[in-house]
UniProtKB/TrEMBL annotation:
InterPro entries cross-referenced by the UniProt entry: Ig-like_dom, Ig-like_dom_sf, Ig-like_fold, Ig_sub
UniProt-listed SMART domains: IG (SM00409)
Protein's name according to its UniProt entry: CSON000850 protein
Record domain Ig-like: where: 196-296
Lineage of producing organism: Eukaryota, Metazoa, Ecdysozoa, Arthropoda, Hexapoda
Amino acid sequence: MIKEVNTRLRYIRIERGFALKWYFNHRLIYIWSPKSGDFDSPRAFHPFTDHINVNISINGVLELRNITQDLSGHYQCIVMTYEAFESKQAHLQVLIPEDDFILERIISPRFVEYRCAVNNIYPNPILNLRWSSPVIFSVTKYGLQGENGLFDVSESIYTSNRNALEANVSCQIQILNTNYNMKFVNPVKIKALHVPDIVILEDVNEPQSLYLDCDYEIHPKEKGFVMKWYFNEKLIYQWIPDRQPLALNTFKNMIDVNTTVNRGILIREISFNTSGTYKCDVQTFESTDSKSAGLQVVVPEDSLELQHVTKNGLVFCRCDCYNIYPEPKLTIMFGENFLLDVSKKVNVGENGLYNASMVARVHSIQANNSPILISCILTIPGTSYMRKEESVFYDTEDMSLYDNIMEEFYAYNYGSIQSNTAKLLIYIVLLLSYCTHS
């Protein structure tokens, strides 16, 4: 790199004793006097002997070479004769541009952080990190000068307020006493991640595809873009512009790479195993952003059944669901009250689907204002999936349902039964069993 420090000279040749001198921070570094004995040729002095080209530096032009940050400072040019003297000075700032200038957003369970950083720059810069958001941020700054004399500087703002995710953030580099000004506006940013919280798999034997979309925005000047998708923190997809997309790991044969480009991924066939957390990660050389969302594949129940009966001052309510995935949560409501005195049972069939039942009891004295609505509510924890079965309770004792239950129970375990007394004894055993397990 060659730079010139130039001054325009005008002098009258008839003046005697002309000399041109350059000073750096008040120290003589160069002298030239035309046709005046020892100084016919320009001379450079330490420490500028390796930085001034004396073969070109004549008649007011000082050519600097081998530029380093040490050449930053005040330069003064003095011209003199026996009859006159004049000088002017100016400041020269040698600037070594940064190797990296990044603005990134970091999301953790507790904080949202925006970090601006520059590496290997000279002189020590000023970072201005600005944001357009009513959210109040905490600010931290860091600076270090390396052995090479260059500076690494960063500034971070962070908050626990999740509204900060929508903030527009910019970072600016300034060098004092220069016109050097670099600005980074809005790092690569994911505007929305379109991953449904549940996908209803109506028929486990019928293939069903699913498209997951990552809507991002990127500054046109950013370079080194790459988009990645993760499933439960394992990389499953990567795309770099102008390259063939890659599907990886367990999703190698599940993602359609011929359709999946630019923003999202197309999963050819979803199943139980595609339930989990999906993360889209977009990054450039300067910035990065990521968003995550959970997806739950749901196989809806074949049936949801609710029964109730009254006996000896107790109301027994039973709720059953069959062939559902994943494991459901059953809740029984008696009027506006959730029944807590319950017995639960869950099992998994060979097909991987769940069967669940719940029996609850309540004293019929709580049903003085009958009729009362009884509800069985089925939910999948962590999703919006909900189903409900309802029945109306009247304050009467009905033995028919007990008879049916008892007959089924006895026929399965003992064969036919004729005695009403024996029937009642077995029925009491059933009631006691429900009470014991509650």
